[in-house]
Every structure is written in structure tokens, then in C-alpha cells.
Here is the input.
Amino acid sequence: MAATKGESSALAQLAQAALALPILALPVKAGAAEVGEIGFTLLGYKERGLMKITEPVLWGRAQFLESWEVQASAAIDIISGASPRLVTNASGKPVQTLTGASVEDRRNTSDVKLTKHFGDFSLAGSMAYSDEQDYNSKAFGIEGRLDVNQRNTTLIAGFGSSKDHVGSTDDPTLDKPRDTKEYLVGVTQVLSPTALVSSTIAWARGEGYYNDPYKLTFTFFPTGGPLLVPDVRPDHRNTVAWLTRFRNHVPSLKGTLQADYRYYSDDWGIRAHTLEVIDERWSIRPALRYYTQGAADFYSPTVTRPPATVHSSDQRLSAFGGLSPSLRVILRVDDRLTVEGTLGYVQNAANFHLGGSGNEAFETLRAGYGLIGVTYAF
Amino acid sequence: MLHRLTFFAMAAENEVQLHSDDEVFAQRAANAAIAEVKRIEAKYSRYLEDSVVSRINAQAGGAPVKADDETLALLAFADACHRQSDRLFDATSGVLRRAWNFREPRVPSQAELDAILPLVGWDKVEISNAHVRLARPGMQLDFGGFGKEYAVDRAARVMADLGVSSAMVNLAGDLAILGSQPGEAPWRVGIKHPRRDDKLLATLPVTSGAIATSGDYERFIEVDGVRHCHVLDPRTGRAARGLQSVTVQAIACIVAGSATTIAMLKGREAGLAWLDEMGVAYLVVTEDGTVIDRF
Here is the structure.
């Protein structure tokens, strides 16, 4: 917008006084509105002696027609290595056993989200698709956000539904459905000009096939013959996840500290807590995450006699804890191009479980991951 | 290739960015711009005993002090602001800081303000024959409302004189943009949200011009739920009310900056009407959090 008033206008008077100084008159010009960002990240994850995952992700975000926004991403997970399939006490105590077969799989995922802003209210619809050899998932969601209280408070409500199909490379006839519906409510509250807290609760109700068709438990008894049983889990899973995030900017430190706490509970008997602290003071951002979970009611590394109707020896359902430190480095090359990298380490172990050691049969998992990403704004 | 230098001056973190294929030239141009900012800080800081402003203040109620052309032109600019703002923009109102200490949450009493208000008044600044005199002992000149903005404009000018054609000078959020980035690309200027540190109010694409922001979040105290910010009304001695922040784009940072201060002082209704009448591009957040985008 240019000044069109006469010489007597306030702007003309101020400009005239300013240009008596030894300075330049810089023509007022705006560029085209920012339309979006496009980015590529490459994630690598490797468990010591087990799985390796490589995941290239392409994503983008764009605004159009002033009040619309679209976000989309596509990724391929390339999974290789070995996964423990059998838990057996053949050697005296139950241990995970690697079978000879190694896993080679690819998972293709993509999602798209469309948001329309109506002043202080916005409504978003999303769809996601994931496909691999023995599993596929289709999901959609809607989410509304409302800014109230002079934009100091944001209320969020959402609903999502996913339809999954579980198969098995060992059993081409296996094709079992699993349906999940998720409900979410949340609030973000500004506490002060430098601090804000947000809290979100999500409930999910799932029904269908939850068994891991590759997992087996092989148990020897002091008397009688051994038993080999497949993984049999309940045919429903209801979960509650409550995430609270606190961010505080400390001007004297020129930085932001973020702390997250997540509580998770399900009707399989798992209770889990995650605490993460991120220090965003510098362009090198250290973070530390702690996780602890209790075992599912039907977890056991050995089979009971007679076998229970539901049973799993999958150690991800056992009691354990984990620590994961990471370092993220962000480099702003110019005002359009940002490069970032993250290096992290994960150690999950029985003795990291909060309040007493976890399940003895849990075999310590050590994994490293790295991420590099490039973002270009256009 | 983009060169980016950050530096500390005027109690803040600042930056110069410029495009040049010649690294040595870029460094030289940025250094010249930074040196110019530091020259202006030294010349007009009220914290430095040796500065022009301190010498004029030391002689308040006494003998006239000789001023050079640059100082006289800045005072003439302050005078234009005073006239164009119905006397709200007043380069002598800084003395009110004797009553307002923004480090502790205490609102000065009427008696305290009444004791200081007689020392405020642009009409008590006598400028004649290249000399400046403050009429009453205890009066203070303060270039806080336009000194930093002038430094932005001077830094841009110094770089332009050296042949730089694509640069941004940013002194703590007040900035000048000298030419677009390569490929006619705009510089993307992030405007701070006055209440939320975690997000920007807007990202403005700008290829040329100056942008300044004034807000009630820079220095303030909160007492009984009321925010008192550092923008003080010379008539009452009390903090401006009605607007959380004002961002203006103009041909010079000194013009944009003074316009933001005047709008803050005028408050919501009068401030917005004045900005509309000015015909400048602006972005305002009112006291109730409403965002008015006229960019």
C-alpha cells in the first residue's frame, strides 16, 4: 500500500523530516506471500544384532486461497535383519531365539491433511494409507481447533478411524481385520508471555485381530512334554493416552525448555509413563527421554499348563524401561533452506523399569538412530 | 551467496545479512554497517556519559550546547513527530523512567508522576543557532524512540554506498531491507507474537522497505492483572493502553518506528484511525488479541 495522501499528510511530513537525514528512501515493496515448505528426511534405525530400518520421507505443506492449507507426506520403510520369533526355556531360562529367516520388507505410507481456517476456528480432514506385505491400514480423521480467550487458549477435538488388515508371509490365507476408532480432546493454554502448557487426551477403542502371527512360545516342563503355542491376544484393545507438554522460554538464557509427560493405559493391563526433557537453548538441542511400562496381564515368557486362552511372550508386552538421549542440530543455511540432523540412542532394559526390576526374560535392546533432514521454504 | 553476521549493540542481539559472491567484500560491508550502528550508539546513548545526549542533559537548565548537523536533523525529525502526533511523541518523556522501574512490579503514585511531569515537554526544548538547551534542570532528552531506527537506516545506507544491492539490517526486530534476494525472492520477515513466544504473528515477504514493531511486551510490569508497558504518555506519565503491538512498513525505519510508537500512544481507536490516515501498511494486535492485518 503506498501513500496517496497529499503533502500535508502525517506520512509525508515524517518522510520529509526523515530524508533530511543522511539515509536512503527504500521503496516499500512486498513480495509474494509465503506459500509453503517442502522437505526430505532420511531416518536410519538399527538395533544391535536385530532389525535395521531405513526410512526416506518426502513431505510438503502449502497455503492456498488465503484460508486453506494442505499437508502431505510419503515414506518408504525398508526393513531388514532379524526379528526374534520364538521364546523358549530350552536352555533353562526363557530367552528370545532368532530363527534363521531374516526379514526383508518394505512398507509404503502416505498421508494428506487439508485444513480450512475460519477466523478463530479451523477444521481439518486427513487420510492416511500404509501398506506392506503382511499388513495394510487405511485411516481418516477430522479435527477442529478453536482459539478463545483472546487467543490465549486453544481447544482441540478430533475423531479418527482406521481399518487395518493383518496377514502373514508364512500363511497366505491369513487375512484378519482390525478396526480402531479414536477420540481426542485437548487444550493449549498460554500461562505467560513466555510459558505455555498443552494437554491432550486420546481414547481409542479397537476390535479385531491383535495376534502377532510370527511369535511362538516353546516351553519345557520338568515333567511331561514341551508345549509350543502361538501368540494369542485379546480381540479388542481400548487405550487411553494423556500427553501434557510444557514449554517455557527463558529470555535470560535465550532459550526454551520443553518438558513432556505421557501417561498410557490399556485394558490389556499395560500402564506406561514417558517423560522427556528438551533443551532448545542452542542450535544444538540435547534431549533425554525416559520410558517405563508395566506388563500386559497375559504376558508370560513361558506357557502355563494347561495353556491360557490368551498368552503372549512378546517382550514388548513385558515390564521394562528405556532411556533415550539424543542430540539435534539445526543449521539455517539461509532464510529458505534449513538443514538438521539428529543422533539418538535407545536402551530398553528390564532394570530401567520404574519401581522394581521388570520382567527377567526381557532382553536388553540397544539401538541407535540418526536422522538428516532438509527443508526448503518457497 | 548469503552472508550473515550477528552482533551485540544497543543492549540487543542484532544481525546483518547480505548477498555477495565476494566473501571479503561481504565481510567488509557488514563490518562497515556494524561500525555505523556502534557509532550512533556511542553518539546518542543516554547511558554513555560522553554522548551528545548526555552532554545536552548535563546542561539542562544551564547553557546551550552546540549540536552538529546530524543531531539537529534528528531533533527536527523528533519535532515533526511531535507535531504529527498531537504532541504524544515526545523526546523528553524518558525522564519518566525515574518513576517507572520496569524491574519491579510497582505502579508509581500520582504524586511521584506529578513531581516529574513538569520536566516533560518538547516545548521546553530550545533549539536555535545550532545550539540545544533544555529549559529546566533535570530534563532529559532521549533518542530511544528513533535512535535505533536511525541506526538501521544508516547501516542500510552505508552498505548501499559500498555497492551492496541485497541486504537486510535487523536491530532487535526493527529492520531495513535493501533489495530483494537473488531471483527476486523476498526476505521473509518474522513478526513476533506479542503474547506467544512459541509462534510468530506473521511472516511478511518483503523485497524492499523498512519494518518496525513496537509492543507492550518489550519491557513491562503487571500489577493486579493490568499491564503497564514502557511506552509512556507524556501528558499523564502513564503507560499507553489499547494495543499489544504495532508493526509498520515505511520507506525508512525511522519513519516506521516513530509511526508504531505514535499508534501505541494513541491507543486502539485513534491509533488505528491515524495509521489508516497515514496510508501505511500495518499489522496491529489490539488489547483483546484481535489481529488487524493491513499489509
Remarks:
- The first strand of chain A starts at residue 29 and ends at 30.
- The mean pLDDT of chain A is 90.
- Residues 10-18 of chain A form the longest helix (9 residues).
